[in-house]
Amino acid sequence: MRSVDAQLERLYQQARVDVAHQNHRRGQYPTLPAGCGFGGGRTEPGNYANTPHNAALIEEILANREFQLVASFIDAGVQTTFPKLHTFLTNLLDKILADNPHIKKMFNGCCYGACHFNLHNACTDNHEDYFNILFAMCCAFCVGNFDHTRGGHIIAWNLGVVTEFPPGAAVYLPSAWVTHANVPIAPHERRSSIAFFTSSGLARWYQNGYMSD
What we know:
This protein is of the alpha+beta class. The protein has one domain: 4-Layer Sandwich (Double-stranded beta-helix). It has five helices and nine strands. α3 packs across α4 and α4 crosses α5. The model has no long low-confidence stretch (mean pLDDT 95).
């Protein structure tokens, strides 16, 4: 996990992140998207947009073997624990990619359509990810250098759950309807995460016969 942590920290140092992606409804930390979705004014499914400078850095991350292994680990967790959901997400992504050959697939062997790279000091405020599929389990995977017994805990308010979230761990959560957040870490500590999800817009596009509402 040290390699993944180091590369996300390098992404933080080299990326040029505008204010909207540093101070947003999920918190105050830099975040960059990868993968595909539909909604937000798009006329068809497509890859999430990044500047040419940031896009090159993210392409390097997505091609890295360590990140591919993380994605496979995340996928295996869904397949083992939520097999019907894994089948649904895998089939949906396959159908979307087949119908939209211009879309670049994020990771091989991963059922999720997209992710956010949350960088350096990523502890979220209370929020729901209401653009994600309502019944799906999203996944957060974290790395960094912080004391997980004192900070970085994940809180699922609707469920009344608070749990430690150490580096190298993954948490699955129905993020579209469960209000969730992280306990802050100390100022001198570092925490990055990868949040895997599938946009509900992709499901609507498919269910509508490859068209919008």
